[in-house]
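Chain A, query sequence.
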Amino acid sequence: MSVPVFIGDELTGAGFRLAGLKVVESPAENLEADFRRALEGAPLVIITARAAASLPRSLVQAAVRRARPPVAIVPEAVGGPPLPDVEREVRAALGVES
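Chain A, predicted structure.
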């Protein structure tokens, strides 16, 4: 049985390892090959935003659109870009800003 794969930094990977995922901490020169390998054999691929930004944009977009396996792009545990304020965005979209 294959297991989901996490690709990213060591600290974020520690949490995913505890959840039972295979963790791949790729050096930059192997990142694309490891991502392609995960797409071929894993039932789910989770990759950090920083790692995804290091890959060709067309490769990541195609993988996300194909959704086989599903690909989730997640923020790093520490030091990643700030997360969007989803509540504010929803309120603005609904026209009920407070």
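Residues 6 and 23 are 5 Å apart (CA to CA). The mean pLDDT is 90.
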